[in-house]
Amino acid sequence: MSASAGAVLGAALLEAPALLERAVAYTRASLALLPRAAPDAPTPCADWDLVRLLRHMDDALAAFSEAAESGYVAPDGPADEQPALLATSLRARACRLLGAWANEPGRPVVSVLGHDLDTTVLAAAGALEIAVHGWDVAQACGEDRPLPESLAETLLAVAPLVVRAEDRPGRFAAPFDLPPTATGSDRLLAFLGRTQKTLR
């Protein structure tokens, strides 16, 4: 990791709750696009339609909130199958999430399914998850919404902490190279194995 990337990562971990807020703001705008999409619309996530993606997002938001509130995560998925109902749940969970992390008591670690994880890393991982799935939702709705450059550059520094070699293939597709002129948004998505051509 370069010195500049290390500085970005250090700042991201120090300001992880603020990073979460930026990710949530981006993704809430993507959720506003849902009325134009079918529940079974394809997404950039392999084998996931829009409803399955939204259910995953709902579950993840609940888990990240639990981490801040109780220091322990054991999530259960929602039963809703309609994008509108899931979007309502997501918005409510996003508000709870931001409040929970703003008031997080400063514990150094949380237990995630029996494994201890640094609190700041978990919050930064939550921001990555939320923002990138916001991009996925927009793609499923037929809209190209690049992540804001400053957010993308920060998440790009966080991503190697969250995505390991053993996660590919499986949770993530293989990364691919882009020219140096590519935007931070495109480079982040490429690192995560995503491309707009995924849906085509």
Write the layout of secondary structure elements.
Blueprint: H1 3-14, H2 16-31, H3 50-70, E1 72-73, H4 83-102, E2 109-112, E3 115-118, H5 119-140, H6 149-162, H7 184-191
Question: Please, could you describe this protein's structure?
Answer:
- With 200 residues, this protein is mainly alpha-helical.
- It has one domain: Four Helix Bundle (Hemerythrin (Met), subunit A) (Up-down Bundle), CATH 1.20.120.
- Helix content is 56%, strand content 5%.
- It has seven helices and three strands; from the N terminus they run αααβαββααα.
- Strands 1-2-3 form a three-stranded mixed beta sheet.
- Helix 4 (83-102) links the parallel strand 1 and strand 2.
- Helix 1 crosses helix 6 (149-162), helix 2 runs antiparallel to helix 4 and helix 5 (119-140) crosses helix 6.
The average pLDDT value, as a whole number, equals 80
Major sheet details: 3 strands, mixed
Q: Tell me which CATH architecture applies here.
A: Up-down Bundle
In terms of DSSP E residues, the strand content is 5-15%
User: Which percent bin holds the helix content?
Assistant: 55-70%
Uncertain ranges: none
Briefly note the CATH topology name: Four Helix Bundle (Hemerythrin (Met), subunit A)
Number of domains: 1
The radius of gyration computed from the alpha-carbon positions, rounded to a whole number of angstroms, is 16 Å
Assigned CATH class = Mainly Alpha
Strand line-up in the sheet with most strands: 1-2-3
Count helical runs: 7
